[in-house]
Amino acid sequence: MARDRDSKRQQLSEEVADHVRELIISGKVAPGEFLRMEPIAEAVGVSNTPVREGLLALSGEGFVELVPRRGFVVTPFTEQDLRDLFWVQAQLGGELAARAAENITQGQLDALETIVKQHDEAVESGDREGMVEYGHAFHRQINLAAGSQRLALLLRSVVKHLPDRFYLSIEGRATAAREEHPLILEALRRRSSRLARSLMEQHILDSADHLVATLRERGMWQDAETS
């Protein structure tokens, strides 16, 4: 029972962290702004305890800073911060794709082909949650085929900095993935480590370009550019 309570508590704090990351990355809260726990608790549907734990986790990631006797304040999140996150993701994802090209089984290739079709159908039907679900499933299958749990865990620790719900508000990447995932799949079929690495790295870095452009349109870094 105690383990179940701890697991539930961690899940709630992660939901808080996910919510606040989205607020910061989308520019809905500004650098220097103090975060009030009550509105966050109400938005996520939790008590203040997981809110504090989630914010403490974010302080370790550099998104917020705990100011003694005043609370948590939002730290600057720059365009370079975003590109750095994607650069690390691209390096790890590219290496995993290269290893997958060497180790992937026919069964895993078949599973990837099915996922690509499911993603395609989600795009066709406008199923945005399905686009995210099958997009993640595509990458998870490749990471599994790579046979390197340590690298996959490192990649997961980077990916969690960019919440799933944030991607749901970004248009365009699902269509791009619809074109890029089959190319990566073909490189894996051909057992081409070099091509799989290159395509995966570019696939991830293109996501950074798209998100930066979208956030610029929303005026997120406008103040930094004019100062």
Please give a structural write-up.
With 227 residues, the chain is mostly helical. The protein is built from eleven helices and three strands, in the order αβααββαααααααα. It has helices spanning 2-25, 37-44, 48-61, 79-103, 106-125, 128-146, 149-159, 164-168, 173-189, 193-217, 222-226; strands at 34-35, 64-67, 71-74. A three-stranded antiparallel β-sheet has the order 1-3-2. Strand 2 (64-67) and strand 3 form a beta hairpin. Helix 5 packs antiparallel against helix 9.
Nearest-angstrom radius of gyration? 19 Å
Biggest sheet: strands side by side, in what order? 1-3-2
* Percent helix: over 70%
> How much of the sequence is in beta strands?
under 5%
Strands, total number: 3
What is the residue-mean pLDDT, rounded to a whole number? 88
Q: Structural class, from secondary structure content?
A: mainly alpha
Low-confidence runs: none
Count every helix, treating DSSP H or I runs of 4 or more residues as helices.
11
Categorize the overall geometry. elongated
Quick one: biggest sheet? Answer: 3 strands, antiparallel
What is the straight-line distance between the termini? 54 Å
In N-to-C order, the SSE pattern is HEHHEEHHHHHHHH
Structure summarized in a few sentences:
The chain is mainly α and 227 residues long. Helices cover 76% and strands 4% of the residues.
Features:
11 helices; mainly alpha
